[in-house]
Design brief:
The structure is a homodimer.
Chain A lengths: L1 E3 L9 E2 L1 E6 L5 E6 L2 E5 L2 E4 L5 H9 L1 E6 L5 H9 L8 H5 L3 E3 L6 E3 L4 E10 L5 E11 L3 E2 L2 E2 L1 H4 L2 E4 L4 E10 L11
Antiparallel strand pairs in A: 2-14, 3-4, 3-7, 5-6, 6-11, 7-10, 8-9, 10-11, 12-13, 14-15
């Protein structure tokens, strides 16, 4: 038996995207968004609606996408709840610091170890932000043999049904590619 | 120090979306996609390119989005690797069975307990599938007190850097909303 919930925004799970931008004076801002995803081989889509971040992306033509981690869940949640329009220093209050990306006009958040550095391509016909991933950078602290190690990254996801953050657990393998067999 | 990886499709993590459709003869098909996400309050976006599923969505005007689980990782991976154009019975081979959605012209996969039942709105200007979520249904086996329980669902995510599936782990809370304090 299935229970019907009606129309709910329950793509499951959702990433905890941390969007970094500069305003027109070069001041960094950071917000938290769960609605977005990989849009193509080198593009991302963000559903942001009206935010300081949206204005900043229009002005600067660029943004970064980092990923909330278990270690940073409190400040990551904080910058998602509080608007820079009300609390201009929310990033510093939250304990984040920034370094300018080498590739785009947007800040890398030093405390968030995996970052997509993106150039704005457009706001599409539905008003979504479409960005080109110009570079991905990862702090060396999350690498094993030169590759991103999800256990070291310790990213969290957003559970839309429970409105909770959850960390990743055990690998269940590449399954079929690893030689697993279908039940006969 | 950060390492630069160049342009990589590393939105992290990515959902393991299972797309259910009917072909022009009402035969169900299922594929696996990681590129997509919540597009708006009641809409989803899928980046599918050319697939049997894409043809089916055009014909039927509907699709379902379920989520791969740890228990079903092998058959879910299988239907993502094998095309219905080459292997017309891949769903049955994989061990999946279907029930028609009450709400849209698309199949619910009985073995996948959480499903978004979607009506095609359009292929947007970039060729992405945009669907309206008409209903979300969940098997009672994954509910606790009437709500979706992520531990019972046991959904997996796709790690794009490692090309591996990972299950969810521990809840790290609602953080700030739960009363956590920023470090002073």
């Amino acid at each position: 038996m299935r229970k019907n919930f009606g129309a709910k925004p329950w793509v499951y799970p959702q990433p905890a995207l941390m969007i970094g931008t500069y305003d027109e004076n070069g001041k960094p801002n950071l917000m938290n968004a769960a609605w977005g995803g990989q849009y193509g081989p080198n593009t991302v889509m963000l559903c942001l609606s009206a935010h300081k971040t949206t204005d900043n992306i229009k002005t600067s033509g660029a943004f970064t996408v980092s990923f909330a981690t278990a270690e940073t869940v409190v400040p990551c949640d904080y910058v998602g709840i509080v608007s820079a329009n009300q609390e201009p220093n929310k990033m510093v209050t939250a304990g984040f610091s920034t370094t300018k990306s080498e590739f785009v006009n947007a800040p890398i958040i030093n405390e968030l170890p995996l970052t997509l550095e993106c150039k704005l391509l457009k706001f599409n016909e539905d008003g979504k932000v479409i960005g080109e991933i110009v570079n991905v950078s990862a702090d060396e602290s999350i690498l094993t043999d030169g590759n991103v190690d999800y256990k070291k990254l310790d990213a969290i996801i957003f559970d839309p049904a429970a409105a909770a953050y959850i960390r990743l657990g055990e690998k269940v393998g590449n399954a079929f590619k690893d030689g697993a067999k279908l039940k006969s």
